[in-house]
Amino acid sequence: MKFKGRAWKYGADIDTDKIIPARYLNTSDPKELAKHCMEDEDASFASKVAPGDIIVADKNFGCGSSREHAPIAIKAAGVACVIAKSYARIFYRNSFNMGLSILESDEVHGATDSGDVLEVDTDSGEIKNLTKNLRFAARPVPPFMQELIKAGGLMESIKKRG
Amino acid sequence: MRPMTITEKILAKHAGVKSVTPGELINAKIDIALGNDITAPIAIREFKKAGAKKVFNKNKVVLVPDHFTPNKDIKSAEQVKILREFAQEQKLTYFFDGGEVGVEHALLPEKGIVVPGDVVIGADSHTCTYGALGAFSTGVGSTDLAAAMITGELWFKVPESMKFVFSGKLNKWVSGKDLILHVIGDVGVDGALYRSMEFTGKPIEKLSMDSRMAMCNMAIEAGAKSGIIAPDAITQEYMHKRAQRPYKFYESDKDAVYAEVREYDCAKIEPTVACPHLPENTKKVSELKNITIDQVIIGSCTNGRLEDLKVAAKILKGHKVPKHLRLIVIPATPFIYNEAMKLGYFDIFLKAGALISPPTCGPCLGGHMGILAAGERSVATTNRNFVGRMGDPKSEVYLTNPAVAAASAIKGRIAHPDEVSK
Fold first, then answer.
1. ipTM of the predicted structure?
2. Interface contact flag, B143 A65, Cβ < 8 Å
3. Which of B35, B102, B133, B293 lies at a CB distance of 3.0 to 4.6 Å from B359, suitable for a disulfide?
4. How far is B367 from chain A (nearest CA, A)?
5. End-to-end CA distance of chain A
6. CB B370 within 8 A of CB B328
7. Is the pTM for the entire model greater than 0.90?
8. Which residue of B has its CA nearest to A69?
9. Cβ separation of A17 and B388 shorter than 8 Å?
10. Domains (ranges, CATH) in chain B?
11. Buried b or exposed e, range A64-95, using 16+ CB within 10 angstroms
């Protein structure tokens, strides 16, 4: 899939409490969660993010809780994909399971400013910064995860297994 | 055959193969699949969406509504209701409600629901606690839980293992909590990313089960997939009266391969504090001067066990906390609650001016039962001090062991237990 959108740049160790504070976890309604996405890191995010926008982060994005509400909130806020240097493992698993596109790159974070327009091809892993006219290659998605995506996520792959 | 770590052996057994290698993808049989009132509603929704009718085994799917209970508002009550109805419909053996509920990671070992040698998954990141029993246990998301509830298995990438070898004698007031905070301060919040942390050495062999659980509980705060301690006589003593199923002790081969080995001399480890806003921001208690506090929480899946309440009671005995400070004690399970009451700890806590809460995760994740206002500061025996973790984004949480928490409650600032107790 190809996405084009504005970058929202954040730092290292963005934890799941920043992505969706626990005080809002008395619901799992994606629309409700989206309203509070990134609230404690960037209070303006939820009201200003546009469909197709892209979160760019430093290392260990999504550390902390196992709450799947975190990738759900990001996706429901309209974010097309996340590009980070690395991900906490439960967040990584959850994103593939529920269908949020995430890519890993060591270079994109340092070379991107908030508001830059990025174009991402999740199949080839090519990331373009159209504002700065730069190109990057994301780390390839492991073959097993690619199969999960092709199957339509974990639950679909289980249904197919029967 | 290739020598293996305890983690590799448990995973190989559950994958039905003789040997596994780090990086390998396996499908492993699940002994226990756990969910709570935050994560299970999504898992149950996915379960139903997939057209599933029955869980793979009614004795192996465990639901513990412990986060926002006693139901803090209407929305939370609706979430818990989803779990209650599902538990009834599926005739789950292990569903805990009302006066039976406890903080899940204290409750499951106490009830003997998880046992040594198990593979346990839980839709809660602190599921790694059960490594203290010599089980492989790891946190997953709700969709993974749904898949496990249906099939009784789940895919894993076999983690590399990282060995943490402790030596020497523990200093006074130092517990498992200080050891793990020290390790996280050393390796960082992603220092063990995707790996299994294996804790070994003479001081670990002498460590109580409660302290072992506090250690393995926080493996996730170093990014780890799991934490584990080889089971021994202490494990046997803890398990034999509790275990609901037969269990098996595994141990690492002497020549097992580790991605990294780190050594720590316990003589150099003092009571430790993780300062805002990451568990890796550790300092010795003695380094922190005049950090005034508004609240102290003693509880959680990290430090709400009997040993924790015992040391807190020992320090608080005969003291009263300052008027401006809220001390909240949260025994982690009904059993711990009852024991603490019988042992006279409640008298000490109440005389000290503490509030005793029913078992709940409550304030640890900023749910309820002790939320912070902007600018307020809490010492807590919990596991995370992220921005906004216990309330307002402008509040602060300092993580400590229960002895430091109790001493700090008396002083109204972060204090060393030696300042109030000899």
1. 0.95
2. no
3. B102
4. 6
5. 28
6. yes
7. yes
8. B39
9. yes
10. 6-264 (3.30.499.10), 272-419 (3.30.499.10)
11. bbbbbbbbbbbbbbebbbbbbbbbbbbbbbbb
